[in-house]
Design goal:
The protein has 12 helices and 11 strands. The protein has about 350 residues and is of the alpha+beta class.
Length: about 350
C-alpha cells in the first residue's frame, strides 16, 4: 500500500482499519482511489482535487456539503441517495498537503456507473437522475461559491475568446478563418440567450454542471437511477445548462473527437427519451421561460464547447489534454457537426418538449 496515501487517508475521520487503497477509474480532472477497510466498516472514496481547475477547493467542498445535506433531509435513504462527505479529524472538509487538496466521501456499494448512454431506456434513466437532483434542490436558497469563474457563462467565454484571438500566441488564427466565422456568426444569438439569465427572465438554481451519464450512480440490482455524483462543479446557474450538457453527451451518434464526421449527429430518439425522464422529475419546478428555452439549451452548450475547443487550439492547447497536435481542432470540427445537426432538427426538438 502506498504509504503516502495511507498517511493522507488516516487524517480523515474514517471508521475501521484501512486494509488497502486502490486506484479507481482514469479521471480527467481528479485522482480517485477506493479505501477499503476491515471489521465490517464502510469503504470510502479518496480524491486528490485538482487545484488548478478548482482554485477554491475549500469553497467547492462547502458547496458539496451544503447541497448533500439539503438532499439528505428529503430522501428515504440518505446514505445511498446522495454523497456523504467525510470530514478530516480536525473538522475541515479536506486535507491539504502542499499544493494538493484531498477529500473523502462514503463509498456507496451495490452500484454501477455506465460510461455511455447507448439505449433510450438508459437515456430516460439519466434524465430522471438530473431532473431529480434539480427538483430536490429547487428550494435550496443558500449562496454557493463560484468555484470556476464564468462556467457556462458565454459572455465570459467571449471575453476570453476575444483576448485569445487578439493575442494569437502560437500563430494559428490565419489558418482558422472558417472555424472562427462559425463562432462569430452565432455570437449575437448566444449572448441574447444569456441576457435572459442575467436579467432574471430565466431563473438561477443549483446546477450540477457536468451531467454526463458517468456522473450518475445506478442500482446494480435493477438498473434504476440512484443519485448524482462528482459534485465538484455544483454552483448556481440556470438549470438549462444541465439539460443542454446532457443532450450534448447523450445524443451524439459519434465520439466527441470523431475524425469521421459522417459518424456525428444528434439522435432525436435519445433526445426524446432523456427529455421525458428529465421533465418527469423537474417540470413541476420549472417556470415557463425555462420550458420555452429548454431545447435551445442543447445548442447553447454545444456551441460553447465548439468555442472552448477552438479557443484552446488557438491558445496552444493549454487547457484540455491532447493525444496529438491537431486533437483540439478535431474536437472542434466534431462538436460543430453535432451543433449543425441540432440546428437542423431544432423545430422537432421544440415540438417534442411541447408534447411532453
Amino acid at each position: 500500500m502506498d504509504t503516502k496515501l495511507l498517511t493522507i487517508a488516516n487524517q480523515f475521520a474514517l471508521e475501521g482499519t484501512i486494509a488497502e487503497i486502490k486506484p479507481l477509474g482514469e479521471g480527467f480532472i481528479n485522482d480517485t482511489f477506493v479505501v477499503k477497510t476491515v471489521d465490517d466498516a464502510p469503504n470510502y472514496i479518496l480524491q486528490r482535487k485538482n487545484h488548478v481547475i478548482f482554485p477554491d477547493v475549500p469553497g467547492m467542498m462547502e458547496n458539496i456539503k451544503a447541497v448533500t445535506e439539503h438532499i439528505k433531509a428529503k430522501v428515504a435513504d440518505p446514505l445511498r441517495e446522495t454523497l456523504t462527505v467525510i470530514p478530516a479529524k480536525d473538522g475541515k472538509l479536506y486535507v491539504q498537503e502542499g499544493e494538493n487538496y484531498w477529500a473523502v466521501c462514503l463509498f456507496i456499494p451495490g452500484t454501477t456507473s455506465p460510461v455511455r448512454a447507448d439505449t433510450p431506456e438508459l437515456a430516460y434513466q439519466g434524465g430522471l437522475g438530473t431532473g431529480r437532483f434539480q427538483a430536490l434542490l429547487a428550494d435550496f436558497n443558500k449562496p454557493l461559491n463560484e468555484t470556476i469563474k464564468g462556467f457556462h457563462n458565454i459572455r465570459w467565454r467571449f471575453q476570453q475568446w476575444d483576448e485569445t484571438i487578439a493575442a494569437d500566441p502560437v500563430g494559428r488564427v490565419a489558418q482558422l478563418q472558417e472555424e472562427i466565422s462559425w463562432i462569430e456568426s452565432r455570437r449575437k444569438e448566444m449572448l441574447d440567450f444569456w441576457s435572459l439569465v442575467e436579467d432574471g427572465t430565466i431563473p438561477m438554481h443549483v446546477t450540477h454542471n457536468d451531467t454526463k451519464i458517468s456522473n450518475i450512480l445506478f442500482n446494480e440490482s435493477d438498473g434504476s437511477m440512484l443519485c448524482m455524483i462528482d459534485l465538484d462543479t455544483v454552483m448556481s446557474s440556470t438549470s438549462l445548462n444541465d439539460f443542454g450538457d446532457a443532450i450534448r453527451s447523450y445524443t451524439n451518434t459519434g465520439a466527441e473527437d470523431d475524425r469521421n464526421l459522417d459518424n456525428v449527429g444528434m439522435n432525436l430518439e435519445m433526445f426524446k427519451a432523456y427529455a421525458e425522464g428529465y421533465l418527469h422529475e423537474q417540470k413541476a419546478s420549472m417556470v415557463q421561460s425555462e420550458l420555452d428555452w429548454l431545447a435551445f439549451s442543447a445548442r447553447y452548450i454545444t456551441f460553447e464547447q465548439v468555442l472552448r475547443f477552438l479557443m484552446d487550439y488557438i491558445d496552444g492547447d493549454k487547457y484540455y489534454k491532447t493525444a496529438y497536435p491537431e486533437h483540439n481542432l478535431v474536437r472542434t470540427h466534431a462538436q460543430y457537426k453535432l451543433l449543425q445537426s441540432m440546428e437542423q432538427q431544432y423545430d422537432e426538438m421544440c415540438r417534442i418538449i411541447q408534447a411532453i
